Structures are given as structure tokens and as C-alpha cells.
TrEMBL record:
InterPro entries given in the database record: DUF488
Identification of the protein by name: DUF488 domain-containing protein
Phylogenetic placement of the source organism: Bacteria, Bacillati, Cyanobacteriota, Cyanophyceae, Nostocales
PANTHER family named among the record's database cross-references: BLR5642 PROTEIN
Organism this protein belongs to: Okeanomitos corallinicola TIOX110
Pfam families the record matches: DUF488 (PF04343)
Length: 155
């Protein structure tokens, strides 16, 4: 494929939260969407509260149930300070979004993922909906930074 056609290629990037989802719904959604890799964007992915989405369990289930690869990229997660301030309602969503976007820009996350890595990948976090979740911000940031057309699908 030549470079001109390659630049016009559309890539699919998915996002999903596991909260309020039963394991069956979570895994079936990923399978039906054609996800090849789950990229964990959580700061804390080993909490007992995560249930089936606890890091080692999730990695095992994704591979066994769906043949989906799992990776955790901590640079895609917020810092504890930013996350705690938002959870404690010390800052609004708008302030959180501004701080998180600055953080991922400073981290240059676009240099830490390849086009091949994100195509057909799904950014994972705990939030049920993407509206007030950093996984949406990561997806939109990558969409704006990478030299490809990235179509974002919120599952």
C-alpha cells in the first residue's frame, strides 16, 4: 500500500467501561465489535472492587474467552492527584479535563502507542459512560495527534 492511501485508511478505536456490566455483556460486546486488544487506562487496575476486570483476571479472561490481547499503559491514566481531586469534588469536570489533557500532552502519549497498536483496540476504564471519563479524552487526543483517520466507538 502506498503512503497516500495509508494516510486515508480509517482506523477503529473503541472505548469501554466495565462498571455496571456483567462479565457476559462485557466480553460479548468486545467480541462482537471485533476488538483485538484491550488497552487498560486505569491508574489502579488491581482493586478487588474491579471484580472480573482486575488486571490478572481480566488478562486471563480476555485471552481464554475471546483471544483478545491485554496491555496496561499507565501513561494513559490520570495521576492520583488529579483523580482524587475530581472524585472528592474539589475540581469540576472541566478543570479535570483541562489538567488531564495537559498531562497526556506533556507525556506525549502519541509517541507511546503505534498506529498498529491502537487499530481495533479498546481503551478500558471503569466509568460506565465515556462522557466524564479520561478514556474518551485519550481517544480524542490520539485522534487529533496521529496522522490517520481514527473512528472512535464508545461501547
Amino acid at each position: 500500500m502506498n503512503k497516500d492511501n495509508d494516510k486515508n485508511q480509517e482506523l477503529d478505536l473503541f472505548t469501554i467501561g466495565f462498571t455496571q456490566k456483567k462479565a457476559e455483556q462485557f466480553f460479548e460486546t468486545l467480541i462482537k465489535s471485533g476488538v483485538k486488544r484491550v488497552i487498560d487506562t486505569r491508574l489502579n487496575n488491581v482493586s478487588q472492587l474491579a471484580g472480573f476486570a482486575k488486571k490478572q483476571d481480566l488478562q486471563y479472561f480476555l485471552q481464554k474467552i475471546a483471544g483478545i490481547e491485554y496491555i496496561h499503559i499507565l501513561d494513559l491514566a490520570p495521576t492520583k492527584d488529579i483523580l482524587d481531586a475530581y472524585k472528592k469534588k474539589e475540581i469540576t469536570w472541566d478543570v479535570y479535563e483541562e489538567r488531564f489533557n495537559l498531562l497526556i500532552s506533556q507525556r506525549q502519549i502519541e509517541k507511546k502507542v503505534s498506529i498498529d497498536m491502537i487499530d481495533k483496540s479498546c481503551l478500558l476504564c471503569s466509568e460506565l459512560k465515556p462522557h466524564n471519563c479520561h478514556r474518551r479524552l485519550v481517544a480524542e487526543y490520539l485522534q487529533g495527534k496521529l496522522d490517520k483517520h481514527i473512528k472512535i466507538h464508545h461501547l
